[in-house]
Specification:
This protein folds into 2 domains: 185 residues, no CATH class; 127 residues, no CATH class. Helices cover 57% and strands 10% of the residues. The termini are far apart.
Length: 312
Amino acid sequence: MLINLVPDFLAVTEANDPAAAYDEYLNAYRRLLDPYWRNYVIEPEGPHFHEIVRATVSADRRDLREMLATTDIVKIAAEAEQRCRTWFDVDSDLDVVLMVGVGAANAGELVVDGRGVAFICVEHFTGMQNHSTHGLGLEPELIALWLAHEIAHTVRYTSPASSSEMKALIAESGGNYSFWETGARATLRELLINEGVAVQAARLVSPGHAEWEYFGYGRREFSRIRELEPVLTRVAARELDERGLGLRLRYLSGGMSDISRTVDGVLLPERSGYFLGARMLEGAITEFGLPWALRASAADITRATAALAQIA
């Protein structure tokens, strides 16, 4: 189901007391917004939370309003969702959410009571950087690409046919996704493949973009990671079957210190795991198809890739 929270958020910014109106908005959509805050921002309570809310509701939104006046984001999202349902053989319930975030993730995935949620924070897709909102200035046409990436995650997490480690961990948590719990308990192999298959899914659903945009990289960053691929592959191979939140942050997050991203004297580029994960299953997707790869365990994908390498 497509859920558009953008009009309600804009109404918050026009209220006599926007901060109080945001609290009402949060309560009205707590099922979606509470896990968004807890997974991608901070716990939605306390002085720091209220500080973020005040900054969010008072930010300059002219770029967002201008984009909305010329771009039908609902149509973009609806068409992307339909393409995903076809390409992914979607067989579980999911919600696609258009929302205004608080400057954190530009997009993300959740599972709430067993139901997958793929969300886009539209302030990042206005085509203009905005320091007031922390907007990244991505073009609106990239909404489809990012939604495909996040919907792919929800299939891996909730499909009845999925044998992924992520699905099992979420089930053990009562059917609710936690970035922190899955990051701490899943193997690095699963975490890399989880992001890699989402990258490959976005390529199929939303073709025609620059190669680096599928990874969320800049052009130079992409070139650097490609140059380092043999070294990165060797370094990551030693840790693939290890677990720990630090591994997820080292390979798949931005903003980490150089020390935390250094392994055996090699400084890993930020978020290099997206590239490594996509490379790990290219052959398996070609041979067995995207719906299979979205649902296959990391071990099955590894075995399939190894068997294909022997044949080649």
